[in-house]
Design brief:
about 350 residues, 15 helices, alpha/beta, Aspartate Aminotransferase, domain 2, 10 strands, 3-stranded antiparallel beta sheet, single chain, Aspartate Aminotransferase, domain 1, 7-stranded mixed beta sheet
Length: about 350
């Protein structure tokens, strides 16, 4: 059943599937010494800059954990928004794997600012308290809002003054880049991001994410941290080969453009149907709006989605690279049916 439950529900882009089949035609050396992974590294540098050091991993949680482990000692702390993926949806993996404390900040839109971070930057050098070391942000946020380059740079400049690192979770960075009409480099390296999780499975890939370090001291031990975190893929060519067409053929851009366009279409059609209680801007491919409990229950009988916040009646809809107008029409028909 097609739905707006998650962009993880979508399939694999046909050209990505072709790349997987092509990579399956012969033997290759394992653990990243294959031709595809070597070519992928060169391609990533062409998009992010020569200082970019990419390391393929299995999934998004793995990418976040490996990235954070590169930045932290167990006595450090990680600062993030209260709604951040690492705080809500990773079953405590970042804390379990890094042993660092997670400090969350309430925000109205899922976005951090220097002003919101500042109250937590205390007790440096005091051994009774975890030492702030990493700020985690995601692009776009779990609420579908997007950081501008200026907002990212403001955070980076601020925390670098405290000797801290900025980790960007780019699970949906393609959607943000399309919204802002910016390149990946303009949203990361140029803004002072130190390390990132580069995601693509939500945007047309079958499997595999990437950690990209932009500072030598963070890249230094990544290969060991990846292995120790159970994220080293033996047949790495199957992850690497997907990023070749994804980046070379602008699949990332075309897919994100469709997802974003369909999100705007879906929002406008929902409003036309008389539902206007949206709780966030729709800046990428995520929509949040409120329904009464009885309407949520009725709607779930006709289509699938996740309830974001039961106490406020917020539901979350996510469009995908392969979302069609027919998908939008079906949801609106279901919505009108319960009205």
């Amino acid at each position: 059943m097609r739905s707006f439950g998650s962009d993880n529900h979508s399939g694999v882009h046909p050209d990505i599937m072709k790349a997987l089949l092509a990579a399956n035609s012969q033997h290759q050396i394992a653990y990243g010494d294959d031709d595809y992974t070597q070519q992928m590294k060169v391609l990533v540098k062409s998009h992010f800059g020569e200082q970019a050091e990419p390391y393929l991993v299995f999934n998004g949680t793995g990418a976040n954990v490996v990235s954070l482990r590169a930045c932290l000692q167990p006595f450090h702390s990680i600062i993030c928004a209260e709604t951040a993926h690492i705080a809500v949806d990773e079953c405590g993996a970042p804390e379990f794997m890094t042993h660092a404390a997670l400090r969350t900040i309430p925000t109205p839109d899922g976005k951090l600012t220097p002003e919101r971070i500042a109250p937590l930057l205390i007790n440096f050098g005091f051994e009774h308290h975890s030492q702030p070391k990493v700020v985690y942000i995601s692009e776009c946020t779990e609420l579908g809002t997007v950081y501008t380059p200026e907002e990212i740079k403001a955070i980076a400049d601020f925390i670098h003054g405290y000797g801290m690192y900025l980790h960007l979770d780019g699970a949906r960075i393609a959607n943000a880049a399309v919204t802002l009409k910016k390149s990946f480099k303009e949203l990361t390296v140029d803004c002072g991001v130190d390390i990132m999780s580069f995601g693509a499975t939500k945007n047309g890939l079958m499997l595999g994410e990437m950690v990209i370090a932009f500072r030598p001291e963070l890249a230094e031990n990544l290969k060991y941290l990846r292995k120790q975190s159970a994220q080293l893929y033996s047949k790495m060519r199957y992850a690497a080969c997907q990023f070749m067409p994804y980046l070379q053929q602008d699949i990332w851009r075309n897919n994100a453009e469709n997802a974003n366009h369909m999100a705007q279409l879906l929002r406008s059609r929902i409003e036309e149907a008389g539902y206007r209680d949206f709780t966030q801007k729709t800046e990428a491919n995520i929509l949040l709006f409120r329904l009464s409990a009885d309407k949520i229950e009725k709607l779930l009988q006709h289509t699938f989605f996740y309830v974001w916040n039961e106490s406020t009646g917020e539901i979350r809809l996510v469009t995908s690279w392969d979302t069609t107008q027919e998908d939008v029409d079906h949801f609106i028909a279901c919505l009108r049916q319960i009205s």
